[in-house]
Design a protein that fits this description.
390 residues; alpha+beta; 45% helix; binds flavin-adenine dinucleotide
Length: 390
């Protein structure tokens, strides 16, 4: 039976998160307008707030599933502000990759670091099998050469999981992931990217120039290129089944903030939203608002279902893509719809709605664009191979 009921403990934590999130919101405009600045790890007013990652580590059997809770934490954090959301250590995308591909010794060694993940390159994003960054064995070192762009948490992370190919002619099977720590010779953080939205979020560009790392930094430790098949590539791609519902949650948190703001402003203008009458018999603004709310609820349900399957240990690759594709479109329509309802107030920089509209745009881009999610869903439902549908 599908059940998204939360434990009392989890509800208390999510309530506390909302109040922490409001602190982040106070700083939202400052870091949006000063893109070159980095928000601090801990905002001064939030230093006594509970660490939600520690909470995740100490939850008991009576609590809700871990993936469901993580998506709700993601939503609760960005409801305050995406970019100034209180970043906690150990929670980069690279940490998920390390867990998915590392040996127990590697997880023990680097699990306490904040790790970014660098796949995308100037000529490769949607199809990660086109990675051009190379890794060549030289004695007891790997030598890495190439460029990576749009690396989330890239400036501030302690290290990064880098995808590189041992042999381009081997295709997917030749791609391996490597742990490169900051300070490795030849590892250059080139710049912080300038963006339309999530502007305080740390997105970096990297250059690897004969970057030398120890031989033991190959994640999983398997140096040979398997004949046929895709080697470890498929395994690392599975990381996305965990992170795509989370990305949906990050977007939905901002969409919920936009809905809450719009509801309050409508109420201030004397427009009440009635759920028990037909759309045609109430104000057009209220009827449109209800449509936006239902888009939000539908997207939230797909997100919860994908995470719930993960908690049960069931395959969720189609559902993870559905949740990401659905949320990507919904959050864009919701924030745009809220602007249409509120008119000039929606685009005024006196309020955060115009910022949420810009910030949610990323939901449909990173971790695979909406088009790519729809292709994955179609392949899964119609039983096509990657070659048959690409
Ligand atoms: C703020 C931000 C943070 C990011 N963080 C990270 C990160 O931490 N690590 C990382 O490795 N990457 C990261 N990315 C990169 C992101 O994952 C890529 O931008 C995304 O996957 C798209 O790849 P691309 O930019 O190469 O676009 P392209 O692949 O060139 O796509 C361009 C357009 O073509 C469409 N398209 C491509 N192929 C197909 C197809 N087969 N069928 C239909 N349409 C198609 C796409 O949907 C898109 O609309 C980040 C990006 C941004 C903007």
């Amino acid at each position: 039976m599908v059940n998204f009921e939360l434990s009392k403990n989890d509800k208390t934590v999510l309530d506390a998160l909302r109040s922490e999130s409001l602190i982040a919101r106070k700083y939202a405009r400052q870091y949006d307008e000063n893109e070159h600045e980095f928000p601090p790890d801990e905002l001064p007013e939030a230093k006594d707030h509970p660490n939600f990652m520690s909470h995740m580590a100490t939850r008991g059997a009576e609590d809700s599933g871990g993936s469901v809770m993580m998506t709700l934490i993601a939503m609760g954090s960005t409801w305050g502000d995406y970019s100034v959301r209180l970043r906690r250590r150990d929670s980069g995308l690279g940490n998920s990759a390390l867990k998915a591909a590392g040996t127990p010794e590697q997880i023990e060694k680097w699990g306490g670091l904040t790790l970014a993940m660098a796949i995308t390159e100037p000529g490769c994003g949607s199809d990660p099998s086109q990675v051009r960054t190379t890794a060549t064995l030289d004695g007891d070192n790997w030598v890495i050469n190439g460029e990576k762009i749009f690396v989330t948490t890239g400036c501030r992370a302690d290290g990064v999981v880098v995808w590189a190919t041992l042999d381009r002619s081997a295709g997917r099977a030749g791609i391996k992931s490597f742990l490169v720590e900051k300070g490795a010779p030849g590892f250059i953080v080139a710049h912080k990217e300038k963006k339309l939205g999530i502007r305080a979020d740390d997105t970096a560009a990297y250059v690897f120039e004969d970057c030398r790392i120890p031989r033991s930094n190959l994640l999983g430790g398997k140096e040979e290129i398997p004949k046929g098949g895709s080697g470890g590539f498929k395994g690392v791609m599975k990381t996305f089944n965990m992170t795509r519902p989370l990305v949906a949650g990050l977007g939905l948190g901002m969409a919920e903030a936009a809905l809450d703001f719009t509801r309050e402003e409508l109420s201030r203008a004397g427009i009440d939203i009635a759920y028990d009458v037909q759309g045609t018999t109430q104000s057009a603004a209220a009827a449109k608002f209800i449509e936006l709310e239902s888009a939000f609820e539908a997207a939230k349900l797909t997100m919860l279902r994908a995470s719930w399957l993960a908690d049960k240990g069931e395959t969720n690759n189609i559902e993870a893509s559905v949740s990401k594709a659905k949320a990507g479109g919904a959050v864009r329509d919701i924030t745009q719809g809220c602007i249409e309802i509120l008119g000039p107030m929606g685009i005024s920089r006196a309020h955060l709605l115009e910022k949420w509209f810009r910030d949610v745009r990323i939901t449909d881009i990173y971790e695979g664009t909406g088009e790519i999610q729809r292709m994955i869903i179609a392949r899964g439902l119609l039983d096509y191979t990657r070659k048959e549908l690409n």
